[in-house]
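lol forgot to send this yesterday, sorry. struct tokens for the thing we talked abt
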């Protein structure tokens, strides 16, 4: 017997206990152990088999260490068929999570019992594939087609009580999974319950699968795996036999396995897990953070405070007046009300946070005891430096002083203090209590334990934290500035903002760049452009004025009801603002530009290549340590389509030589903007790709 599955005999019941911590992943040793256990139980004359997991969970899914490697026998589909075909009574007792292959093993069992806290799901679409061990064939037979389609195409986790109603689980009972499983198996034997193989159940009734396919494809913004999974469920209804339905599932599974989208999603999966693992922090202990301060209670400051409060940290929020402080508290209360409505916190937690954890203040002295303070005031260097000079005067020794600046030089901010080693950038993304990305900006003199503290805080807040170096805009906003400039150039040359937005949402972005600008506030970009002009633009740089004209007229996007789009209260989204095209036409005329047409493919290619080129410069300069850091920033902070893996994974899949050829060709029309990144040229010359650099950094 395999050590990963322990065998025990209790009367007529053979007990197979998975023991593969931490999550009983269905690696090859577990699969072999389950097969050997079934065969032994049959040979020894047992009447029933109980399968359960030791530790904190039933089988939580596949073993990620096997991803990308040749599969080893027994394969999971064959194992599930063998479990189901056993003449013995097969019972699974579920606790923790039964996800992916875990739920497929449970569905291969003849009966299923679960503790109330258990969750089940088939999340394979999030990795660009579909359930490949019978999940698309068995789940519709027990839960019905509509419920199965919902679970499979969304990948959502379903609680035990809902799973019971759907028929996925037969019984929910509190207690130890081994004990309730044994009692249930004995109860079934005593009642003479028949062996009940899901694969032998009648095919479920079909639905309008063509309509469902189109709806799922549209909802996924081009992601293929949920829509392809619809076709696999369709086979459960329409295939002449269960075996033929399984064959169709396998065929569709293999199609997705070969797709670029699967490669992109697997890359995103591993990149998210690798991004916080930095050699420089190995063995470095973070400073203890029991209480934090937040300076500024606007949208961003209130969001940061909310995120800290939800993470269990007491917060002292500093504003300049009592009125502003109470307005900040109202914003936080609104954020918490949303968390309460979504079931993230209880009413008791909600009330305790507002009454006990949150303290309002109007004087810097109130921050004298905090362990970490985050400044979220107006994006102006002089204002930031004044704040940090005050913090330097009142904060205790060892307190971490953090700035939430989006673009400004953290080294210059740190120089306003006598303790630059304690200063770090913590760049949250708005709304800060919702967005998962946190850029941790390491200044020249920031010491490692302060960096470790930033990562520990991000972990406590359930953020995806990425290390960034100091430059204008760090990783994300620096790259954003470049691809946004590329979009502006295409507008001057003949594309409309609305065509560009549509082309990019069709590509898979959550929003196009002009709709994003409206959402963020056009005044933000306006302020950045004015600052850069004041610092002096390179005379070779192309500039435009049409967006400035909108701002000068007081049109800042959604918050004023008008920007590139016009917005009506109570309606989602906006309609193109016709004034914009007139402003663009005037800008073109002033610059003597004759507009031309752009295809959607050309728009996407230029936009993406500009993004990749700037990202290569960011990695080459060490602002981002690895290409995967860039990918994670764009995935979690900028609406990049996850199924494409991030811009540098997209570039690898497209081929770096072709991208470099495009940059060199376009440099003939603008050799200032289209300057190839030295790292990109180096990789092409060496026949390497960005992912090679990720592997080098492991």
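and heres what i got for the seq, position by position
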């Amino acid at each position: 017997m395999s050590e990963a599955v322990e065998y025990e005999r209790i009367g007529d019941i053979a007990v197979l206990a998975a023991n593969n911590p931490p999550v009983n992943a269905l690696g090859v040793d577990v699969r072999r152990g389950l097969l050997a256990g079934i065969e032994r139980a049959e040979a020894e004359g047992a009447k029933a088999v109980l399968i359960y997991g030791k530790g904190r969970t039933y089988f939580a899914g596949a073993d990620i260490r096997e991803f990308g490697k040749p599969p080893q026998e027994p394969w999971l589909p064959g194992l599930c068929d063998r479990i189901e075909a056993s003449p013995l009574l097969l019972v699974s007792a579920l606790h923790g999570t039964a996800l992916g292959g875990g739920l497929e093993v449970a569905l291969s069992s003849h009966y299923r019992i679960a503790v109330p806290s258990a969750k089940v799901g088939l999340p394979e679409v999030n990795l660009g594939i579909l359930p490949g061990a019978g999940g698309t064939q068995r789940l519709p037979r027990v839960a019905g087609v509509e419920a199965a389609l919902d679970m499979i195409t969304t990948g959502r986790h379903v609680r035990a009580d809902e799973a019971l109603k759907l028929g996925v689980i037969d019984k929910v009972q509190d207690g130890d999974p081994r004990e309730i499983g044994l009692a249930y198996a004995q109860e079934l034997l005593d009642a003479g319950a028949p062996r009940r193989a899901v694969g032998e159940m009648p095919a479920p009734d079909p639905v309008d699968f063509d309509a469902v396919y189109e709806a799922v494809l549209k909802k996924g913004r081009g992601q293929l795996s949920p829509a392809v999974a619809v076709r696999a469920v369709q086979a459960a209804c329409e295939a002449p036999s269960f075996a033929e339905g399984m064959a169709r599932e396998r065929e569709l599974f293999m199609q997705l396995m070969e797709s670029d989208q699967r490669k992109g999603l697997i890359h995103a999966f591993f990149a998210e897990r690798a991004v916080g693992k930095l050699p420089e922090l190995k063995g470095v202990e973070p400073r203890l953070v029991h209480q934090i301060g937040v300076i500024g209670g606007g949208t961003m400051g209130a969001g940061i405070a909310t995120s800290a409060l939800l993470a269990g940290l007491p917060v002292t929020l500093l504003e300049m007046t009592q009125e502003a402080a109470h307005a900040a508290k109202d914003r936080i209360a609104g954020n918490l009300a949303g968390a309460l409505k979504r079931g993230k916190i209880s009413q008791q937690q909600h009330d305790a946070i507002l009454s006990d954890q949150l303290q309002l203040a109007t004087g810097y002295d109130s921050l004298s005891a905090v362990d970490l303070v985050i400044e979220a005031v107006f994006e102006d260097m002089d204002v930031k430096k004044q704040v940090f000079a005050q913090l330097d005067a009142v904060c205790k020794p060892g307190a971490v002083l953090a700035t939430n600046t989006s673009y400004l030089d953290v080294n210059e901010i740190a120089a306003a203090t006598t303790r630059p080693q304690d200063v770090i950038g913590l760049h949250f993304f708005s709304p800060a209590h919702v967005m998962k990305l946190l850029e941790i900006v390491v200044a020249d003199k920031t010491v490692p334990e302060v960096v470790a503290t930033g990562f520990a805080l991000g972990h406590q807040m359930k953020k995806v934290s990425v290390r960034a170096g100091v430059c204008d805009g760090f990783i994300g906003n620096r790259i954003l500035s470049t691809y946004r400039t590329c979009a502006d150039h295409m507008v001057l040359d003949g594309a409309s903002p609305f065509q560009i937005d549509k082309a990019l949402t069709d590509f898979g972005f959550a929003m196009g760049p002009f709709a994003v600008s409206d959402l963020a506030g056009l005044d933000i970009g306006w302020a950045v452009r004015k600052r850069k002009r004041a610092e002096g633009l390179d005379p070779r740089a192309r500039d435009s004025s049409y967006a400035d004209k909108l701002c000068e007229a007081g049109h800042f996007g959604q918050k004023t009801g008008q920007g590139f789009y016009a917005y009506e209260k109570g309606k989602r989204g906006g309609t193109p603002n016709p004034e914009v095209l007139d402003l663009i036409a005037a800008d073109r005329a002033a610059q003597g530009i004759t507009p031309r047409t752009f295809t959607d493919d050309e728009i996407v290619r230029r936009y993406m290549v500009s993004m990749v080129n700037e990202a290569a410069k960011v990695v080459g300069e060490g602002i981002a340590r690895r290409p995967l850091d860039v990918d994670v920033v764009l995935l979690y902070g900028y609406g990049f389509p996850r199924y494409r893996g991030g811009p540098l994974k997209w570039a690898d899949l497209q081929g770096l030589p072709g991208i470099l050829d495009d940059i060199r060709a376009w440099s003939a029309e603008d050799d200032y903007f289209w300057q190839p990144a030295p790292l990109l040229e180096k990789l092409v010359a060496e026949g390497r790709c960005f992912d090679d650099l990720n592997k080098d950094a492991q």
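The mean pLDDT is 95. anyway ping me if u want another try
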